[in-house]
Amino acid sequence: MPTTAPTGLAAYSEVTASEASLKRFLHGLPGVDQVGAEARAAGLGTRSIKTSAKAWALDLAIRMVDLTTLEGQDTPGKVRALAGKALHPDPSDPTCPSVAAVCVYGDLVGEVKEIVGSQVNVAAVATAFPSGRASMDIKLADTRDAVANGADEIDMVIDRGAFLAGRYLQVFEEIVATREACVRPDGSHAHLKVIFETGELQTYDNVRRASWLAMLAGTDFIKTSTGKVQPAATLPVTLVMLEAVRDFREATGVQIGVKPAGGIRTAKDAIKYLVMVNEIAGDDWLDPDWFRFGASTLLNDLLMQRTKMTTGRYSGPDYFTLD
């Protein structure tokens, strides 16, 4: 890593100029202490927060949810219902905030957009999700189609086979090309989230390398998982990614978001992640613009806990619509 803090990505142009220089940089990053990372994550997971802070944290977590359905059986009716829930998670309580985004396959973006308009972001998975194994022409066409359908955000998957084989420049160039495919005719662009599928990356060192690789390529967010592979999001993996975005901003002045996805199902789990965000990256990341939860079942538990705090009564899971 550079010994001085540059003021932007331009300082890293030589790093990404060739396969050799990129590999040298990524393998020169400090190694992750596996035992230390897991111990710190476990320790942060035991922190408790006061009742007043818990109410704030529940609302913040709701605002950070990317409400997700990515099944072959998804229909226009199903995603439109999900979009309605994203706008009004608890129809009986108008003070309940909307979620951050609805995440669907690209061909269903228009259905969601008709319901949410500009009030909630619409995210689309692309680039041969979830495997990432397709030609670049297909991946880019997939991305452009989702953007043309109105997607505000694109969740792309990296080619894990290329990454694990050490073909870092190939992965870098795919991210750059996908970001370019996110540009709309008016010059604005859909925000890009890069999914690593951390359950397949094998080591925390690889998670750190993938994080820096994606950030150097110009992603807006780094994301743990597709939700299709186990393990998906974990506290230690997210800790490593939060350290990476913190260090990247210190080095470049550029802030990047983080999205753990898959396996986060309870309000208790979500609050553990929020504590970690505050402790590792800092409170600048405690905002839906910089931290998201990719989830399909988390929202209902957040709503149940919120109802308990506001009414004193615990509503069962059937009180809220199933996602």
From TrEMBL:
Signal peptide: none annotated. SMART domains: DeoC. GO terms for molecular function: deoxyribose-phosphate aldolase activity. Gene3D superfamilies: Aldolase class I. Pathway: Carbohydrate degradation; 2-deoxy-D-ribose 1-phosphate degradation; D-glyceraldehyde 3-phosphate and acetaldehyde from 2-deoxy-alpha-D-ribose 1-phosphate: step 2/2. Pfam families: DeoC. Keywords: Lyase, Schiff base. This is Deoxyribose-phosphate aldolase. It comes from Nocardioides caeni. The lineage of its organism: Bacteria, Bacillati, Actinomycetota, Actinomycetes, Propionibacteriales.
